[in-house]
User: Fold PucR-like helix-turn-helix protein from Actinocrispum wychmicini.
Amino acid sequence: MSRLTVDLRRRLREALACARFALLSGRVDATVRADELGAMRFLVALDDPAPLHDYVAEQLGALLGRNGADLFETLRAFLETDGHHATIAERCHVQKSTVKYRLARIAEILHRPLSDPEVRFELHLAVALSDVLTVLAFTP
Assistant:
């Protein structure tokens, strides 16, 4: 296979991934470039998403399997805000006491302490992978 063919294949995969990301944004004028995908851009090269599915299921499966959309979004907000309860409450449109309850419930469901930095890293990665798999139409 020529170098040109390999490069075209890679660029096509990147273009398709970017188009899917742009569609996910819901904006008509959205444009996503491959270099904007950041650390997750390596995923566009995968032919078999099964290991990614497995990782997401291992980390979040118990939460995703319980119709836990509110809990999942609370977890996402927790991870993105470094656990700042007031910001989580604002993002999720709930009271801070509800945030505390949900976080305790998430830790209970996942059987993992959210105070552990390694756990937070693994969960953050799993949430990001879940988003990428969904965008790329490989719904976990």
In short: The mean pLDDT is 82. Residues 48-140 form a domain with the Arc Repressor Mutant, subunit A fold (CATH 1.10.10.2840). The longest helix spans residues 3-25.
